[in-house]
Structures are given as C-alpha cells and as structure tokens.
Task: inverse folding
C-alpha cells in the first residue's frame, strides 16, 4: 500500500522515486494509519449517462446459476465477485432529465419533499467516513450525479491532470499560506454568523428555537470540517511511482489520451483509494467515442440506436470497452493486498449503473446495475421484479458503511437477496 510519508524518507534517482521499506521504528504512526485504512469501508461509483442495450446486459436467469449476457462477458473471471441486478429503479420518468437521480432516487426539483433532500449515496457515505481522509469525497469527469443533502451539486474534476495534481502534487508554500488565510477567514465569518443568531434566540418561539439549534449544529459541523482541512495543509501528499499513471504521470498531462480516457480515470480512482486520499470516489462517464476502432459516432448518438444494426454494432464496442475497463478496475482492487492480508476489494463496494435503462427508449426503468466487493456474498443475479426500489440497495450499502439508519430517500427496507459475508 502507498501511504503518506515525508518526502525526505525517500531516495530519488533520475526521475525515479524509490520508497524505503516500511520499518515500524521509523514510521510507527503511519504503520498504524495503514492498519486503520485496511479496515476502512470504501465506496467507488462508476456511472454511465445513456443506459445500456438492456437485452445484452440483463441476464435471463436469476439466482446463482445464471449466464453472463454478451455485454458482461468481460466480467467472466470476476463472476463470483459481482452481483448483477435487474428490475430495480426509482419509478422515475423524464429520460435524460431524470438521469441525475441515479444515486439518490430524488429529482433535484423535488428534494424539498424528502427529509434528506436529494443527497446521493456517495455523499451520504462521505458524511460517514469523509472526515478520516484528506478529501471527504472525489468526483471525476462528468458532473451532475452527486448532490449534498442541501441540494448542492458537487463539481467534478474534469481533467485527469487536475485530479492527479490535486491528489499527488504538494502545494507551494505560497499556496499553503493562501489556504490557511482562506480557512481562517471562513472561521471568522462563522463566528459572526453565530453571534448574530444567538442575539435572536430570546425572541423566538419553541419551533423556531429548534430550527436555530439545528442551525447551530450545522455551524459546529462546518467548523469541525474547517479544522480538519487545516490539519491537512502541511501534511505531504502521497508519492506514487512515476510510471503508475502512464501518460497522465508524464510531462504533458493535458494531452488527449484517446481510447485510454476511461482507463485513465479508473486508474485515478484506484490510486485515490489505494493511497487513502479518499474513501468515497465517483466517476461519471462523459459523452464521446474515445477513438475506438469501428466507432464513428458518439456514445449519445449511438444510444438512440432504434435497433439499427450499424448503430448496435458500434455501441456494442463502446459497452465492451466500458465493461473491460470496469473489470480491470475491480481486478486491481481484488489483487491489491492490504496490510492485514485482505484485498482492497474486500472492503470496497464498487457500484456500476446508469440513471437510464434503455437510451433508445429514453426510459428510466429496469436500470443496469452491478455491485462488486465490499464483503457481500456475490456470484448471483438478483431480479427485483419491480417490487423493490433501487434505494433499498443504497440503504444496504450505507449500513455496510456503518450508517445507523433505516431508510435512504425512497427506500422501504434493505435489499432482499443481498447478504453479507459476515
């Protein structure tokens, strides 16, 4: 595992970083941190915007003895590490306009009707474990899929170079001073807001006092986050091998990477988790064709295939590309051992899905969903039969993360058929 270590503890050759072996006498606190990280629960989300060709994605048989359909064939070696779902959705309509509900089940325009607004499963997970890492969560590539409980859309890092720099390149001393000043300014503003709010307290009725107390709780939580942010400013960022990111780790990090773009973003997701930079990371795929051989149109255009043979053959190449890289990501987690001997996949719930079922029909039902790892009993296809909302799956995942809650947005229970390894 790559952990945070003072850069003076490293030997440097010409353009090469060589890590010293982990020695308890030199790094006792960091060794303990690595142990804590190996026991941590993590969530990684990969979403696609235009659905899938559903009859090539959803298995025909349910239960343990099912056959992988053509789109999922790249996952064949990992069949015992994944669960495929069908007939799970949010009972939603709206086509592209409802795609953003994938991780919440709630349209942003309807969030006022739910106790937790339209918070997405990744951001709820970040509330649980985000305080333990430098970045409470990271959102990559396409934005508009992750929301806080107050309805704020989490901005995405849109360039691999920006994500790489944020996670692995230390700020200059000047930038650190600017960050400290910004955080101090934020703290001062909170002090003023708190004093103004307290001056109102005696003039409020019982219900309004309750609202004010909730407001104070929110301020205290914000102050806690500010203090945590301050504590990370002077800690060096993780060091990764110069070859760990291929092109993105080389000199020109802003170059067009063509058909490697999906792979590069998944590599960044893996490094974010492996270095314990975050324990919650989401990546939503942008439109394009990534220079794939045999593909001349964009992903979006081909999703409106209308059962045309030429369009179906091209989108099959795109979907195979997505699944091949998704399988590679899962396999990397599975084969990467942690300090306690377990694999990263054992403690990482990896979710794949789309807020649209069939892009050709603009439907938001029968969503294509896969869950891997995370300590669940896999190797099965669960058919929800339209009797369970997708949020039941999210509730199960959050409880696995340690959430003490019995609902998540539109859920009515945990997901029937999904069982923990223990």
Result:
């Amino acid at each position: 595992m790559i952990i945070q270590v003072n850069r003076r503890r490293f030997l440097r050759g010409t353009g090469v970083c060589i890590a010293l072996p982990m020695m308890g006498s030199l790094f006792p606190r960091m060794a303990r941190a690595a142990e804590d990280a190996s026991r941590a629960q993590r969530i990684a989300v990969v979403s696609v915007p235009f659905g899938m060709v559903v009859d090539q994605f959803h298995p025909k048989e349910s239960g343990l003895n099912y056959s992988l359909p053509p789109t999922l064939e790249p996952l064949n070696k990992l069949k015992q590490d994944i669960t495929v779902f069908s007939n799970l959705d949010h009972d939603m309509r709206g086509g592209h306009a409802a795609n953003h509900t994938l991780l919440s089940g709630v349209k942003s325009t309807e969030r006022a009707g739910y106790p937790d607004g339209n918070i997405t499963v990744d951001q709820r997970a970040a509330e649980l474990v985000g305080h333990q890492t430098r970045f409470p969560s990271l959102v990559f590539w396409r934005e508009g899929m992750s929301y806080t409980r107050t309805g704020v859309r989490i901005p995405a890092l849109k360039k691999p170079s920006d994500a790489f720099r944020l996670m692995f390149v230390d700020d200059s001393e000047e930038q650190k001073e600017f960050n400290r000043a910004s955080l101090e300014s934020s703290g001062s503003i909170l002090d003023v807001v708190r004093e103004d709010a307290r001056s109102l307290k005696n003039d409020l009725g019982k219900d309004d006092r309750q609202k004010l107390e909730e407001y104070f709780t929110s301020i205290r939580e914000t102050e806690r986050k500010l203090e945590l942010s301050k504590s990370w400013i002077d800690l060096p960022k993780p060091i990764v091998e110069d070859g760990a990111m291929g092109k993105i780790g080389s000199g020109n990090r802003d170059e067009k990477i063509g058909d490697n773009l999906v792979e590069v973003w998944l590599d960044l997701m893996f490094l974010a988790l492996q270095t314990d930079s975050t324990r919650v990371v989401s990546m939503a795929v942008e439109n394009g064709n990534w220079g794939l051989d045999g593909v001349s149109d964009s992903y979006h255009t081909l999703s409106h295939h209308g059962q045309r043979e030429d369009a179906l053959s091209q989108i099959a190449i795109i979907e195979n590309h997505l699944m091949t890289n998704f399988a590679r990501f899962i396999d990397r987690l599975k084969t990467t051992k942690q300090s306690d001997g377990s694999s990263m996949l054992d403690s990482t719930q990896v979710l794949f899905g789309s807020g649209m079922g069939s892009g050709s029909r603009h439907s938001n039902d029968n969503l294509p969903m896969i869950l891997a790892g995370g300590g669940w009993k896999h190797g099965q296809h669960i058919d929800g039969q339209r009797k369970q909302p997708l949020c039941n799956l999210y509730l199960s995942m959050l409880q696995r993360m340690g959430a003490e809650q019995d609902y998540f947005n539109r859920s009515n229970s945990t997901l029937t058929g999904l069982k923990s390894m223990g």
In short: Residues 171-235 form one domain. Confidence is low (pLDDT under 50) at residues 1-32, 250-255. The chain is about 35% helix and 10% strand. Residues 173-200 form the longest helix (28 residues).
